[in-house]
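Example A, followed by Example B.
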Amino acid sequence: MHFIKNINENEIHLHGIKRFTKYMLVFFLLSVFGWIYEEIYFLIASHEFVNRGFFYGPYLPVYGFGCILITFFIKKFKNKPLLFFILTMLITGVLEYLVGFVLEKVWHKHLWDYSNEFLNINGFICFKSVISFALGGMILIYIIEPLINNFTNKISKKHDIIINIFIPFILIIDFIFSIVYKHPL
């Protein structure tokens, strides 16, 4: 137990804040990236700009949640790329299916439809989508997440606190406005 007395409580607290900041940035930045990715994809495919998201802001939280799940639960398999890829397909496929199902059943919104795609399940997921999300998961774990770690290790505690208050505040306000005005129950 002699090693325990060498650990400073402030270091443990600061490590927890840094970790939360990392997850907050992963969630928010990848939600924004997901929105940009989809806007570009559908702008090319349909030649029109349409906010594909549920929210007013330029983010798709399903991407952020998927990235958090990947980072939190299956990052430990990154040294086994094939297993990591398969697990990422599974976790993102289940998430996309559940989100699509809930959006349809609760808000009667069908924000995407893979009905005409190869190996689709009720139009909510398809082979192409889970493959692309698995590739995105690999980019996340091997490239983006290390950059975010490096950034969060360099910023001050003050900036950690600002990030950890500002991002949830913006998302909560947008969620409330989206529920009340854009997608009333």
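Example B, a separate protein, is given below in the same form.
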Amino acid sequence: MSIQVKIVNKSHHPLPAYATAGSSGMDIRAFLTEPVCLAPLERGLIPTGLFIAIPQNAEVQIRPRSGLAIKQGLTCLNTPGTIDADYRGEIKVILINLSNESQTIQDGDRIAQMVFQQVEKANWELVVELEVTERGEGGFGHTGKK
């Protein structure tokens, strides 16, 4: 299944594309006038030059690229980042350097991936109490380590 999405590309890079037939995300590239250097634990907002019109009842999720994370220690904050259907601004990616060395992002570097998702809308039903489940109010780590 595919959806039609309008896109404006103000960068000089090719449009995002699926790398393989089985890919769920499309890589997006940095659109920079000069390199950005992130020191260890520093974060930065990286522009892409891309503007999209997401259809109603859909969203785009911005997710880290695994190769960038393992090789350079660069990952996305606010992950997955959500782009709502009514947003029309430039797609920008919050990157953080989790390595012990400064990392430089160059124009054209593949910095993240975008995944399109359908969105279900919720309608609230106000009740006095909720049905009982086996888990109940058990929270973080309540089932133990193994």
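On Example B: The CA atoms of residues 19 and 26 lie 7 Å apart.
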